[in-house]
Amino acid sequence: MRRAQAPGLVLAPPPPSSLLLLLGLLVLDRGCAAQQYSSDLCSWKGSGLTHESHKKDVEQVYLRCSEGSIEWMYPTGALIVNLRPNIVSSSPKHWTVCIKPFKDSAGANIYLEKTGELKLLVGDGDHSPTRIHCFSYDEGGLFVEATPQLDISRKITGFQYELINKGTESDLHTISAPCRPCSDTEVLLAVCTSDFVVKGTIQNVINEEEQQDSVIDVNVNKIYRQKMKIFKPAEESSGWRGQIKTLLQCGVRPGEGEFLFTGRMHFGEARLGCAPRFKDFQRMYKEAEDKGLNPCEIGTD
Length: 301
What we know:
Blueprint: H1 16-31, E1 36-40, E2 44-47, E3 58-63, E4 67-73, E5 78-83, E6 95-101, E7 108-114, E8 117-122, E9 133-136, E10 141-146, E11 156-165, H2 169-176, H3 184-193, E12 196-208, E13 213-226, E14 232-233, E15 240-247, E16 259-266, E17 269-272, H4 278-290
Parallel strand pairs: 1-3, 2-4, 3-5
Antiparallel strand pairs: 4-11, 5-10, 6-9, 6-11, 7-8, 7-10, 12-13, 12-16, 13-15, 14-15, 16-17
Helix pairs in contact: 2-3
């Protein structure tokens, strides 16, 4: 079983007006002192009402974190979102950017922009259940353009963003093939690098057709690590209970026996990574330990 992963980005040619607007805005950005600029460490919240309605102003937004959000009320004009996180990496190609629009986001199109070329990521009012869109950090930046509206009073464009390190073999695997079983090496790396690592059994699996997710109810009898309080004490037993999500297409079903569940927090949700049967993990760990190849130490009881 593998953790859920966002679908590939949706590409579509931008309308000519958007491309002309973008080129004009980039020129203005270099020499116009009247432009409005906003910056914050992780998240930005602003309003298009600060712009004159007849002008197509651009707002420059600078974000320095690996996760956060954008909330643009009464969108008019456009935003250029500059993600410049304080991360240590040998190359931008080691990072993937994912965005998740707010449930009722409306009033603007979200594009991926590089050297004046626009590719549509999220159209205005797109409420598709597969709402996470990912792209490589070096593919370009985010350009958010308000669409013409007769009434902007109820429009809010917003999304969460995350940067994911795909520099390790395990992270690269989860991005490229979320349903393929893990290799022994990937399991051992996942044990060392995941946000949560627990031993437990599957109590139930609930398929959410609309969201294209499967929700796994897990009974946990040992917690090796959890970044957030995903698994909480169970009232009916001495263990813990919690939920992990994965892609519906992976076809997860309840199975007997113990598993080692690993995974990452993704937009506030626990997403499944490698999940071998525990007896298989014990075998992998012992074989690597005998060869001195374990990337980290963890109990196998």
